[in-house]
Amino acid sequence: MRDPGPTMPENDPPATRWVMLAIVSAGFIAMTINWFDISTGFPAIGKEFDKPIPDVAFLISVFVAAYGILHIPGGLLATKWGLRRTLALGLAIEAAGSLLSATSTSFAQLVLWRAVAGVGASVFAAVGIAAVSIWFRDHQHALALGISSAAFSVGTALGLYAFADLTDATSWRTSIVIGGVLCLVVAAVSALFFRVPRDAGPLAGAHLTRAGLQQALFNKDIWLYGLAFFGAYGSYLGASQLISGYGDDRHIPGDQVGAAAFLIGIAGVPGSIAAGWLADRYLSPRTLFAAGAVLEAVALACIPLSGPHTFWIPAFGVGFMFNFVFAVWQTVPGGMKGLAPENIGTAIGLMLTISAVGGFVLPWAFGHIVDGPGYAAAWTFLAAVSAVTVAFCLFTRSGSRSLATAPGPAGGPAPDAGRGTSFLRDSSPAAADELGA
Fold first, then answer.
1. At 138, is the secondary structure helix, strand, or coil?
2. Domain range holding 28?
3. 208, 231, 246 — which closes off a domain?
4. Are residues 85 and 143 both part of a single domain?
5. Total structural domains within the chain
């Protein structure tokens, strides 16, 4: 449901919100570089610590584990301390984890510091989405979130490919130090230059209240959208990590496997922006979300049907449609009636936490199915789960883009009523008392 009484950052110059979007997007790039750059050093790390590659790959798993469980606390921190400080804190913690990883003298230490980095990324992720939402509305809310989601894909590609060359030219320790320094620089920029809209006092920090927690954590639609993304989210994480091994197992030419692995990540850039453009202009978020998740399932089902020279096509489809769906999905809390803007981060944190369970369960199940019926059945399983779980969104309230007409200054329609995605509600004395603002 859409909030019929939005309050916008009208006292800010129009260019300000684009500057804020650029800061948050830089944060997503730095966050994902420091997520994936460690994988470029796996062979050297395995040799140094005498560990086989499957054991070294645990460094990704421990990061994802920490990333998946701390979204809600990150949202609560944003409510209490404000968006600016929480954005900077998340990136600073991730930077510290990366820099300390380079000092590791044992594999156990490296695992510990990778978990710390995952904690920082978890804090930043949900808050970063909220930080974009509070600056944008109308035709640009979904587009802005699409751009920030594209930044996630850019960071992934840089971490996996640009940093691979950097690791080859230097060492794995030097590579992750550079990533950590970059993350620290963006944290400092966020602390110094990011701000919330004028006249949005609670967004700079507010008291945690029972009513606020109920808004964010006991909203039926938040839970349903979290469950609806369970399959698409987990299937993408599994596919992006496992498609190279599958290609090698099928003896597909190395250049085709490399192209598929690259495209499943970078295809998210056009996918995210296309989703934002469409969501702001033509269709409801629920319709786009459901259609995108089904198309991701179709692409997953086509992977075992592809040939040596068409292997890249379904990989591109999976990457494009996952990020298409993700960009639309992020707009949901910002458009919900009755969800105060300072609680958007916590609501997004809950959605991410629910969906992240799929990131653990589905790759694990995929591996077990491969050991039994084989790869074809495993890819079909991921496709089926993606298509089935999206049905949860059908039980949410209407995803229509239309807003109820809010009274304007002279009792007529509000200037922007009936357009796009709105998220900031009118302040009221009751709301202020509830927040302790």
1. strand
2. 13-208
3. 208
4. yes
5. 2
* Residue of 166, 164, 293 whose CA lies nearest to 225: 293
pTM score, whole prediction: 0.76
CA triple 111-113-116, angle to 5 deg: 115
Q: pLDDT tens, 124-172?
A: 987 898 888 888 865 588 888 889 989 988 998 888 888 888 998 999 9
Q: Give counts: helices (H), strands (E), the chain.
A: 21, 0
Does residue 218 lie in a domain region? yes
Q: What is the DSSP string of 275-313?
A: HHHHHHHTS-HHHHHHHHHHHHHHHHHHGGG--TTTTHH
Residue 433 lies inside a defined structural domain of this protein: no
> pLDDT of 54-90, one tens digit each?
778 778 778 888 888 888 887 788 777 888 899 999 9
Q: What angle do CA 208, 212, 216 make, to 5 degrees?
A: 120
CATH assignment at residue 243: 1.20.1250.20
Pair 53, 43: CB distance under 8 Å: yes
Tell me how far apart the alpha carbons of residues 324 and 125 are, in angstroms, rounded to a whole number.
Answer: 17
